[in-house]
Specification:
The complex is a heterodimer. By secondary structure, chain A is of the alpha/beta class. Chain A is built from 25 helices and 10 strands. Classes of the chains: A alpha/beta, B alpha/beta.
C-alpha cells in the first residue's frame, strides 16, 4: 500500500498517520477479498500491542450524558477506533453497492416511508386488527404500557409455567425495557443466543449497535471475554474458533431452556404474524425449540398486510449490511401443538412520541443501523459513548423522548451532515430532527447555561454592526477576538488539536472601505 | 441585475481574499454588485446550537441589509443553507420570504442562474481534491450525494472543469463530513479534530496538491488539521480558483 503514497512520501514531510498502511477491505491468506454476512472483521497484526477495550459513557443517574468525554476515550484507543471506523465504512460501501444495484431503490424508500406513515396514523385500527388475528391463531396477546409492565407480564408467564431459564434472540426492545437485569433479579436465567449479543452479555455490557452489538470490540477483546467466561484460549482470536466456541457452549442451553423469546422486525396486522429477519437463525431456535414461546413487539412494528412485507425485506438487509436479504426471514403465527405462544405489545413511550409533531416519524425506524454505519461521529465514538439503548443518529432523536434531561446532550453530538437521512430506508429526516431537538432543548433550558450564555452574547454582537466591527476590529485583533467571536469558547478547544487560522492583513470589510469606497463612504 | 454580496463572518475576518475574489468574479460577468456595509452574520452559530431566540435580531439585520436586491450571493453553502432553510426565528413576512428565496450560493448562482459557459481567465495547473461542504452537498443540492441512487451531477466540478490545467483527484470517502460542524468543532473537539485528520489524510493519499471547496469554514478547519499533522496540502476557495488565482 505504501508505494501508492508516492511521490510525497519520498519528500519525508508526511505525517506518519498518512504513511500508515491502509486497506479498508479484508483479504484472506490467498489475497482474495472475504465477504461476511455481517461485514468484514480484520485480525489485528500480530506485532500490534494489546489495547484494552475502551468502555462507554459514564452513567451518573439522571445527569446529562457526556458523549464527548466517552468519545475521547474511544479515540485514545487507536486500534479499536480504526477497526471500528473501517469496518462500519466497509458496511456503508456495501450498502451503497446494493442500493445502487436496484434501479427503483429511491422509489422503494418512498413507498416504505408512506406505508409506515399510513400505518402510524391508523395505528389503533391496525393494532386491533393484529390482536384479533393473533387471538384467532390461538396466540395469547398482552399489552404493556411501559418496559416495567412488559417485564412483569413476561415474568408472570414464566412463573405460571414454572420456567427458570429463557433463551432469547436479539431484541432492542428488551434492551429498552432492561429485561435482562430485571429477570436476573427474579432468578430467571436469560441466555442470549446471537453471537454479538452473547458476547455483550458475557462482558456485562450493553449492545453498541442495533445490528452488530459487539462491533466496537476487536477479536482479541472477544478472545478475552470468552477466555474469562467460557474458558477458551485467550491468545486465539481466530473468528471461526471464537464463533464455534460460543455455538458449542450455547446450543445445550437452547436445548434445555424452559422458554424462548424473540423480538420482532415486522408484525403483520391482517395475519397476526410476527416476522424476524436474522442471519444466525437463533430466532428460529428460540421460538421453535423451547415449549413456551414469547414474542416482544414494539407497537410501531405493525405493517398492514403481507404484501407490504416485500418492500421492507428488500430494503432492510441491503441498508443494514449491503446483503440482498438476511439468511432467515421467519414468520411466527401460531403455537406448535402442545405449546403456548404469547405476544406482548409494548408501548413504552411510543404513543407519546406519535403525538410529537416534529418527531413522530422517528417511529418509522426499522432498526437497520444504516444511519450509524454512515455517521462519521458514530464511527469515531463507538455506540457505547451515547450511554443509551439507541446510539448514533437515530438514537439522538429517539433517546430524548425517553429522558429529556439525561439525553439532552445527545442531539449536539452531530455535525448535522445529513448522510443519515440519505441512507435511511424509510426516509426519516434524521438530521432535521436533530436540528429540531436542539431548538426544543434550548427552549426548555436543557442545554448548559454556559452554552446558552455564549449564544446570547454572540447574538448580541452579531446583531449590532458597530459591536461586531469592534469585536473584529483590525485584522490583528480578530485572532485575539476569536475565542469570543468565532469560537465562543474561553478554553480555546479549537487550538488544542488544530492550528489557529492565520490573521489576514485586513478584513474584507476594511479592504472594501479602502479600495471600493470614496471619502463620503459611498461605494 | 442588482446583486447584494454577503461576505460571511468567517470570510470577512479570516479569508478576505475569498470575499474579494467573489466580488471580482461577479463583476467580470458585468453584474452590479453591492456590499451592504452593515452586514454581520446569517445567524447560523445560534440556530445550529438550538438558540433561535438568540438568533432573531441577527436574522432581522440580515433581512434589513439584503432586502430589495434581485439576488443575494454568498461564497458559502453553509450560510446560504441557513438563510434558505433555517432563517425562521423572525416573523415570515413577504420581505423575509423574498430575501430567503433570492439568496444563492456562488457556485449555484454561476451554474444555475448565470449559466456561465466559460472562464477564459482561469487556469489552475494543479492536482485538486474537491471538498463538498455537507450543507452545500445535501442541503442545497450542489451535487448528487453518494448515498442516493440518482443520476450523477456536480455543479462545482462542472465549473472547475472550465478551468485550464486543473486535474481533479478522487477521494476514498468523497462525501464524508470533515468534522467542522459549526459549534460542534469547539464543543466536541476530539471527534471533530479526528474527522479532520482523517479527511486530510484521505486528501493527501489521493495525491492532491490543493483542496478546493465552496466553504471557508470547512477549509479553515482542514487547514488547521493539516498544519498540525504536518501535511503540506494547500487550501483555497473555489471563488479564488474561478476568478483566476494562479495558486
Amino acid at each position: 500500500m505504501s508505494e501508492e503514497l508516492n511521490p510525497r512520501e519520498r519528500e519525508g514531510v508526511i505525517h506518519p498517520e498518512v504513511r500508515a498502511r491502509s486497506d479498508e477491505s479484508e483479504r484472506g491468506p490467498n489475497g482474495q477479498r472475504l465477504q461476511h454476512a455481517e461485514a468484514a472483521s480484520k485480525p489485528i497484526r500480530a506485532d500490534a500491542p494489546r489495547e484494552p477495550q475502551p468502555r462507554g459513557a459514564r452513567i451518573k443517574g439522571n445527569r446529562p450524558i457526556d458523549q464527548g468525554e466517552a468519545a475521547e476515550r474511544f479515540l485514545a484507543a487507536p486500534l479499536h477506533q480504526k477497526a471500528h471506523d473501517e469496518r462500519l465504512w466497509d458496511v456503508r460501501k456495501k450498502r451503497d453497492t446494493a442500493a445502487h444495484g436496484i434501479p427503483e431503490w429511491e422509489e422503494l424508500r418512498e413507498i416504505a416511508s408512506q406505508i409506515k406513515a399510513h400505518t402510524l396514523t391508523h395505528l389503533d385500527q391496525y393494532l386491533a386488527q393484529f390482536e384479533a388475528a393473533a387471538k384467532a391463531n390461538g396466540v395469547h396477546v398482552h399489552w404493556a404500557e411501559d418496559g416495567a409492565a412488559h417485564n412483569r407480564i413476561v415474568l408472570d408467564i414464566l412463573q405460571k409455567h414454572g420456567a427458570k431459564s429463557l433463551v432469547k434472540s436479539k431484541s432492542m426492545l428488551t434492551e429498552e425495557c432492561g429485561f435482562r437485569h430485571f429477570m436476573a433479579a427474579h432468578d430467571i436465567d436469560i441466555i442470549e443466543t446471537d453471537l454479538g449479543e452473547r458476547i455483550q452479555q458475557l462482558d456485562e455490557e450493553e449492545p453498541s449497535h442495533v445490528v452488530m452489538p459487539a462491533v466496537h470490540k476487536t477479536r482479541l477483546d472477544v478472545a478475552d471475554v470468552f477466555a474469562r467466561t467460557l474458558g477458551t484460549d485467550p491468545d486465539n482470536d481466530d473468528a471461526h474458533y471464537l464463533a464455534e466456541s460460543q455455538r458449542e457452549t450455547t446450543r445445550p442451553l437452547i436445548l434445555k431452556a424452559d422458554a424462548g423469546l424473540t423480538g420482532c422486525n415486522f408484525a403483520i396486522a391482517e395475519t397476526g404474524t410476527v416476522v424476524t429477519c436474522t442471519n444466525e437463525g437463533n430466532a428460529d431456535l428460540s421460538g421453535n425449540v423451547p415449549p413456551l414461546q414469547i414474542h416482544s413487539i414494539g407497537i410501531e412494528k405493525i405493517i398492514p398486510k403481507v404484501e407490504h412485507l416485500g418492500v421492507f425485506i428488500r430494503l432492510l438487509s441491503r441498508s443494514a449490511l449491503g446483503s440482498p436479504i438476511t439468511q432467515y426471514t421467519s414468520h411466527f403465527r401460531a403455537p406448535r401443538a402442545g405449546t403456548e405462544m404469547h405476544m406482548v405489545l409494548v408501548d413504552n413511550g411510543r404513543s407519546e412520541r406519535l403525538g410529537m409533531e416534529e418527531f413522530w416519524t422517528s417511529l418509522k425506524c426499522i432498526r437497520c443501523g444504516a444511519c450509524m454505519n454512515t455517521c462519521p461521529v458514530y464511527r469515531r465514538s463507538g455506540g457505547l459513548s451515547y450511554g443509551a439503548t439507541y446510539s448514533g443518529p437515530i438514537g439522538l432523536i429517539i433517546d430524548p423522548t425517553f429522558n429529556k434531561r439525561k439525553y439532552s446532550t445527545l442531539p449536539f453530538s452531530s455535525t448535522m451532515n445529513g448522510s443519515c437521512t440519505n441512507v435511511c430506508p424509510v426516509k426519516i429526516n434524521i438530521h432535521e430532527q436533530i436540528f429540531a431537538w436542539r431548538k426544543v432543548l434550548a427552549e426548555e433550558h436543557q442545554i448548559p447555561l454556559l452554552k446558552q450564555g455564549m449564544m446570547k452574547a454572540a447574538g448580541a454582537v452579531l446583531s449590532r454592526p458597530a459591536a461586531y466591527r469592534a469585536a473584529i476590529g483590525a485584522a490583528d485583533s480578530a485572532l485575539r477576538a476569536l475565542p469570543r467571536f468565532a469560537v465562543y469558547n474561553p478554553a480555546n478547544t479549537w487550538g488544542k488539536k488544530r492550528e489557529m487560522p492565520h490573521a489576514p492583513r485586513q478584513s474584507f470589510h476594511a479592504w472594501y472601505r479602502q479600495n471600493r469606497m470614496n471619502k463620503d463612504g459611498q461605494s | 441585475m442588482r446583486i447584494g454580496l454577503f461576505v460571511p463572518c468567517y470570510v470577512d475576518a479570516f479569508e478576505p481574499e475569498v470575499g474579494i475574489a467573489t466580488l471580482e468574479l461577479l463583476e467580470r460577468f458585468g453584474l452590479d454588485v453591492e456590499y451592504p456595509f452593515d452586514q454581520t452574520c446569517c445567524g447560523q452559530p445560534m440556530t445550529n446550537t438550538g438558540c433561535h431566540a438568540e438568533a432573531a435580531a441577527t436574522e432581522a439585520l440580515f433581512v434589513k441589509n439584503f432586502s430589495g436586491f434581485d439576488y443575494v450571493v454568498a461564497p458559502s453553502g453553509s450560510c446560504v443553507h441557513q438563510v434558505r432553510e433555517h432563517l425562521t426565528a423572525i416573523p415570515q413576512t413577504d420581505e423575509v420570504k423574498a430575501v430567503r428565496a433570492k439568496t444563492f450560493e456562488l457556485v449555484e448562482f454561476l451554474h444555475d442562474v448565470l449559466k456561465i459557459e466559460e472562464l477564459p481567465w482561469a487556469a489552475f495547473p494543479h492536482r485538486v481534491a474537491y471538498h463538498s461542504n455537507c450543507n452545500a452537498l445535501r442541503g442545497i443540492g450542489h451535487a448528487r450525494p453518494s448515498e442516493l441512487n440518482r443520476p450523477y451531477f456536480s455543479k462545482p466540478l462542472n465549473l472547475l472543469k472550465k478551468v485550464k490545467g486543473i486535474e481533479i483527484v478522487d477521494l476514498a470517502r468523497p462525501d464524508e463530513c470533515c468534522g467542522f460542524g459549526g459549534t460542534f468543532s469547539v464543543f466536541e473537539p476530539a471527534v471533530s479534530a479526528k474527522m479532520g485528520y482523517d479527511k486530510v489524510t484521505d486528501q493527501a493519499r489521493a495525491g492532491a496538491d490543493y483542496v478546493v471547496s465552496a466553504d471557508s469554514s470547512c477549509l479553515m478547519h482542514q487547514k488547521g488539521c493539516a498544519e498540525r499533522l504536518g501535511v503540506p496540502l494547500k487550501y483555497i476557495h473555489i471563488a479564488q480558483v474561478l476568478n483566476g488565482a494562479a495558486a
